[in-house]
Amino acid sequence: MKMKFAACRLSKSVLPRNYELHLSLDPENAAFRGRVTISLESKKPATRLVLHALDLSLASVVVAGRRLAPSKVVVDAKAETVTLLLDSPLKGRAEVDIEYSGKMNELMRGLYKSRGKNAGKEEAWSFTHLEPTHARRFLPCFDEPSFKASFELSLDVPAGLTPLSNMPSVSDTVLDGRRTVVFQKTPKMSSYLLAVFAARLKSRARKVGRTALTVWAAPEQIVQADFALEAGENALKYLNSYFGIPYMLPKLDMVAAPDFASGAMENWGAILYRDSSLLIDPKLSSDAAKRRVAEVVSHEIVHQWFGNLVTMGWWNDLWLNEAFATWLAYKIVDSWKPAWKVWDEFDQS
Ligand SMILES: [Zn+2]
Q1: How far is the centre of ligand 1, averaged over its atoms, from the C-alpha of 283 (Å)?
Q2: In this structure, are 28 and 175 located in the same domain?
Q3: N or C of the chain: less Cβ packing under 10 Å?
Q4: How far is the CA of 48 from the centre of ligand 1 (A)?
Q5: Cβ atoms of 270 and 253 closer than 8 Å
Q6: Pick from 199, 232, 263: which residue ends a domain?
Q7: How far is the CA of 96 from the centre of ligand 1 (A)?
Q8: Contacts with 279 (C-beta within 8 Å, 6 or more apart), sequence order
Q9: Residue 133 pairs with which residues in a beta bridge?
Q10: Confidence (pLDDT) at 261
Q11: What is the ipTM for the molecules in this complex?
């Protein structure tokens, strides 16, 4: 029987408020372990909690301080959910604590394994791509855009890799070959905008108003970062003024990945790009390549407001995000480089 899409939607009577997430990544073995504590609120007495989860192994589940027997944790792979059967009804605020593990895939969905380089040899890196419904491959969660919640993340990675996420770090320690970074709590946001990266990266940064704008790329590519930094500065300044609401996070990272499913993804504060959509070789790249990078960078920065700060309730209105970001990116690039006459190509984009 064909499953109706609506059957996969979660009930609105239980709302997530905060995710406290501890993650340990092992890119070489394409493996990760996590522990998530979800603070939630149940508006009416609930005898079951339904979360999204896909291809994750749940080791232990504790609800409101009581550990659930394995028979009370029901995974439905087809619906991409896990149902927690409770002994007594839950109402009001509570915490769900889940220890779990997963495998990084090479399909560029969820947390995926990427092939980077270190001193000429292949090295495993990790990136997330969670839009539209891949956060559930990364952590048990309420994986729909209207379920906004804050995220408090700590990330443990091999010491040679740089860990990045949506927010700046508050602590950073290296011990026994592992690097552990704790990040500031995010504002309330949709699960598809969460970002977790671990790669061998160098950076070029500048301050734009109150925002630390940084381009990250592999060490041998970082000399190609300057054009994206200029385009990003231009777009940020334009949009701070255009919207009348300054960019709302303390930092904005733009990260080049060696493999990525689309041109770019607008994760809040940590935009991920296919390297060819971000980097410009000052000697070799054509004007057409620069136009393309300027448009993609501007488009993703528009999404920081239109999509990230203000989000569609459901995916049927995604066209609003994309139409507005596409149109406004042309407006930004045209005001920056009028000689490019980018509007002449608008109907072909
Ligand atoms: Zn877009």
Answers
A1: 29
A2: yes
A3: N
A4: 36
A5: yes
A6: 199
A7: 33
A8: 217, 221, 224, 225, 227, 228, 256, 293
A9: none
A10: 83
A11: 0.99
Tell me the CATH number at 297: 1.10.390.10
Which positions ≥6 away from 30 have C-beta within 8 Å? 103, 104, 105, 106, 113, 124
Q: How far is the CA of 288 from the centre of ligand 1 (A)?
A: 20
Domain count, the chain: 2
- Which amino acid, one-letter code, is at 269? G
Ligand 1 centroid to residue 80 C-alpha, Å: 25
Nearest CA among 55, 101, 102 for reference residue 75 = 55
**Pick from 169, 199, 229: which residue ends a domain?**
199
Phi-psi group of 177: left, alpha or beta (phi > 0 → left; psi -120 to 50 → alpha; rest → beta): left
CA distance 189 to 305: 12
Domain around 225 = 201-349
Q: What tens-digit pLDDT sequence spans the chain (349 residues)?
A: 444 455 579 999 999 999 999 999 999 999 999 999 999 999 999 999 999 999 999 999 999 999 999 999 999 999 999 999 999 999 999 999 999 999 998 889 999 999 999 988 999 999 999 999 999 999 999 999 999 999 999 999 999 999 999 999 999 999 999 999 999 999 999 999 999 999 999 999 999 999 999 999 999 999 999 999 999 999 999 999 999 999 999 999 999 999 888 899 999 999 999 999 999 998 999 999 999 999 999 999 999 999 999 999 999 999 999 999 999 999 999 999 999 999 998 876 5
SS3 89: strand
Number of residues assigned to the chain: 349
Q: Tell me how far apart the alpha carbons of residues 25 and 4 are, in angstroms, rounded to a whole number.
A: 35
Phi, psi dihedral angles at 319 (to 5 degrees): -55, -30
Same-domain status, 89 and 216 = no
Dihedral over alpha carbons 81, 313, 240, 17 (to 10 degrees): -50
3-state DSSP call for residue 236? helix
Q: Measure the CA–CA gap between 297 and 124, rounded to whole angstroms.
A: 26
Residue 1 lies in a domain: no
Find how far residue 261's CA is from the centre of its chain: 14
Distance in Å, CA 145 to ligand 1 centroid: 15
Same domain, 301 and 174: no
Half-sphere exposure of 138 (CA within 13 A, CB side): 30
